[in-house]
Design goal:
Blueprint lengths: L8 H6 L2 H8 L11 E2 L2 E2 L27 E6 L8 H4 L6 H7 L7 E3 L6 E3 L11 E3 L2 E7 L14 H13 L4 H5 L5 E8 L2 E6 L20 H21 L2 H14 L14 H21 L12 E7 L3 E6 L9 E5 L4 E5 L4 E5 L7 E6 L6 E5 L4 H9 L5 E3 L6 H7 L5 E7 L3 E6 L9 H10 L2 H8 L5 E2 L21 E2 L2 E2 L2 H14 L9 E2 L7 E3 L15 E5 L6 H17 L3 E5 L2 H8 L13 E6 L8 H8 L19 H12 L3 H18 L2 E6 L1 E7 L2 E2 L21 E2 L2
Parallel strand pairs: 3-16, 3-17, 25-26, 25-27
Antiparallel strand pairs: 1-2, 4-5, 6-7, 7-9, 8-9, 10-11, 11-16, 12-13, 12-15, 13-14, 18-29, 19-27, 19-28, 20-28, 21-22, 23-24, 30-31
């Protein structure tokens, strides 16, 4: 049931958002076609039925789970067996995939649907923060019936322990993401109560989706190792002298190739010395903690890490006493999620009313005895092993191309799933200059961009038309009712009607032509004579414009869209040229640092964004479009220079929201505003195709980003038949 990404999701989404541009824009190869089903596409073979099982949980005697092994092929190598390092200095999707199935949190997200539900919390909803003097406090009850795989109880102290280590050792990266500076303390007044103190009233990102998603770490296991790290740090602190620090700083400066950086003892201040000693001591503590080999670290989830053979495989053993074993999960069309466990007498629906068809139904196991995470040095090697039946599924974050899909499809033992990736590709307008600054111009341009034609016909269904910044599979946050340019009441307009509508939009706004487009509504190519001399309402001719787009060698999808957009806009009378441009050159031209002068160098561009924070997707909207994030004045990712009091008000309210329902409604409102005001035209989403043996049954086939996007969403319920 648990589908949260490896801990640290919010850091990835908020602090590394620029990297998403690169990631999202690097998927160049076409994928295959499948019929869309709702927001994603269904598996092309296989069955998504219920998970099976007898509804009984573990019996508490530590007996192994019956069932065979599930062999997962990695397309890269594992680099650590230490959970702390896997979320920091040795962070990688592979390390986190196999080590990320062992811990619980107060709250989590469901698979699929990403609905916010309780995990270790003893309440259905997070306890609201209350003010106590100058601070804000949450006292959140914790369940008392959860245990670690070694039989020790999971307590509030395990969450407090994690906070203490993060702060004491100044852990960064993914560890720090759940404990922002506004979190003053996390303590455990009792085993069943965690007390969290905040410097100010916490918003969702700080409390519910911050500390609320932080891991419970088994203090009884890691406590002695933390003490060893403290002792090592203390020994170093006692032994290192100011003279040692001074000499080390001098040596470091001399090792630098720039002679201007060379230092003598007179150049070293006491502040420099203190900082060096502090950093050295902290690094020593982390070196000791991160070096701990941790097989059989107790788990509160479905998998217990048992073995790592570097260069070969890692193994996780299924936890026979997994707390959620036997839980029945149902994801409904209204975006709600039902969690029922007869043994515990629990049956609740979250995020809606439980109405509409059941999109996915499955039971928590685990149903396999172990998962082997098999290392492969190359992607080709992993898929060779899949074809040969030596692995059951290839964990591949980028998925396979249609060419590889076609090659693998000759093997009758393989099945495939096709889902929409988390990100989207878009056309951005430069709102700092005319005519892009005119909403009527943007509306007319968006109207003639027939994304359905390119996606469904020209590209033969290889991509999915997009309409919103928020992914349609994020049901709680997705607004299906936003206006769609180029659509009427019955769906997409005909080619001719798109031009008729766009011309009327421009006329109503005061645009004129020296020669208006001639449109033949009976003709399959309706613009028989392109418009010429398009003039803005102020009497100025629309200048020749450009669309900066990746070339076909980098991304044939966007290159194809650019060619068609050039034709459509020229037919409308807009003099525009699609310019194939190096990806890095586009990024340099539009992303910070920018000046008022440099920001005038472009008219329109095409790029993409990868997945953001699925628990609070509105954070991406704020980062991309709030006026304070202007690429020129704010150094942010608002590249169009979009300034909207209406949007800013909704964004500010979103950031101040203290409950998920309010945040969801404001996220929908932001998408509505963006669809109306059009700083971007969202163009399409790409598919992710995954291959697995026909004997494998995942709990759900339709999931945003595919199975590799949420590797801790399926180990507890995946099944492998004989």
């Amino acid at each position: 049931m648990k589908a949260t990404k490896p801990l640290g999701l919010r850091l990835f989404a908020l602090l590394a958002v620029f990297a998403l541009v690169v990631a999202a824009c690097s998927e160049a190869e076409p994928a295959d076609t499948t019929e869309a089903t709702g927001g994603t596409t269904a598996t092309t073979s296989g069955d998504t039925g219920s998970g099976g099982g007898d509804g009984e949980g573990g019996d508490g005697d530590g007996a192994p789970v019956a069932g065979g092994a599930f062999n997962v092929g990695f397309i890269s190598n594992i680099t650590t067996d230490n959970w702390w390092a896997a979320l920091d200095t040795l962070s990688s999707t592979y390390n986190q995939a196999y080590l990320g199935n062992a811990k619980t949190a107060l709250f989590t997200l469901t698979n699929p649907g990403f609905v916010y539900v309780p995990a270790a919390a003893a309440t259905d909803e997070p306890v609201p923060a209350v003010q106590e003097g100058d601070i804000w406090v949450v006292e959140q009850p914790v369940r008392t019936d959860m245990t670690w795989s070694d039989g020790e109880p999971v307590t509030a102290g395990d969450l407090a322990f994690y906070f203490e280590v993060v702060r004491e050792f100044n852990l960064g990266s993914n560890h720090a993401a759940n404990f922002v500076p506004d979190v003053l303390s996390v303590t455990a007044p009792s085993d069943d109560l965690v007390r969290i103190e905040f410097a100010s009233q916490p918003g969702l990102a700080t409390w519910q989706n911050g500390v609320g998603f932080a891991a419970f770490v088994p203090a009884h296991f890691w406590g002695p190792h933390v003490e060893e790290a403290r002792a090592a740090a203390a020994d170093l602190a006692a032994s290192i002298t100011d003279e040692d620090a001074t000499q080390a700083l001098i040596d470091a400066s001399l090792a630098n190739e720039d002679p201007d950086d060379d230092k003598t003892a007179e150049d070293i201040t006491q502040e420099d010395i203190d900082a060096y000693i502090s950093d050295s001591v902290a690094n020593e503590a982390l070196t000791v903690l991160y070096a701990v080999e941790a097989p059989m670290e107790p788990s509160s989830s479905s998998q217990v890490f048992s073995q790592w053979e570097p260069g070969a495989f890692a193994a996780t053993t299924s936890n026979a006493d997994y707390f959620d074993a036997g839980t029945e999960n149902t994801y409904y069309a209204d975006g709600s999620f039902r969690v029922a466990n007869a043994n515990r007498g629990e049956d609740a629906v979250y995020g809606g009313e439980g109405s509409g068809d059941a999109i996915a139904q499955y039971v928590e196991g685990p149903f396999v005895s172990e998962i082997l995470w098999v290392e492969h040095g190359t992607k080709d090697a992993a898929y060779e092993k899949l074809s040969a039946g030596e692995v059951d599924y290839v964990y591949d974050p980028t998925g396979i191309t249609s060419a590889l899909r076609n090659e693998l499809a000759t093997n009758p033992d393989l099945n495939f799933s096709v889902n929409q990736t988390e990100g989207f590709r878009y056309l951005a307008f430069n709102l700092r200059k005319a005519p892009m600054s005119d909403l009527a111009f943007r509306q007319a341009a968006a109207t003639v961009i027939n994304k359905e034609l390119v996606a469904d016909t020209v590209l033969a269904g290889a991509v999915f038309p997009g309409y919103t910044v928020i992914h349609p599979d994020l049901t709680s946050f997705y607004n299906a009712d936003v206006p769609r340019a180029g659509w009427g009441d019955e769906g997409p307009l005909s080619e001719a009607d798109r031009y008729v509508t766009a011309v009327q939009i421009l006329k109503d706004a005061g645009y004129t032509w020296t020669s208006e487009p001639v449109i033949d509504v009976e003709n399959p190519d309706p613009v028989t004579t392109p418009g010429e001399g398009l003039t803005m309402p102020n009497g100025t001719l629309v200048p020749e414009l450009s669309i900066l787009a990746p070339g076909p060698g980098y991304d044939p999808f966007r290159a194809t869209f650019a060619i068609w957009m050039e034709q459509w806009l020229n037919d409308l009378g807009v003099p525009v040229v699609a310019e194939p441009t190096d990806f890095n050159a586009i990024v340099s031209a539009v992303f910070p640092p920018q000046t008022e002068e440099s920001a005038q160098s472009w008219d329109m561009y095409m790029l993409g964004w990868g997945g953001g924070d699925v628990s609070l997707p509105g954070t991406s909207q704020v980062a991309f479009f709030h006026s304070r994030e202007d690429a020129v004045t704010g150094g942010g990712f608002n590249t169009p220079g979009y300034m909207s009091e209406r949007f800013d008000a909704a964004a500010d309210a979103f950031e101040s929201a203290t409950d998920v329902a309010t945040a969801a409604e404001l996220t929908k409102e932001m998408d509505l505003i963006l669809a109306e005001e059009l700083p971007y035209v969202v163009l399409f989403r790409t598919p992710i195709i995954e291959a697995f043996r026909g004997s494998v049954q995942f709990p759900a086939q339709v999931i945003m980003g595919g199975h590799s996007g949420f590797p801790n969403g399926w180990p507890s319920s995946v099944q492998v038949s004989e």
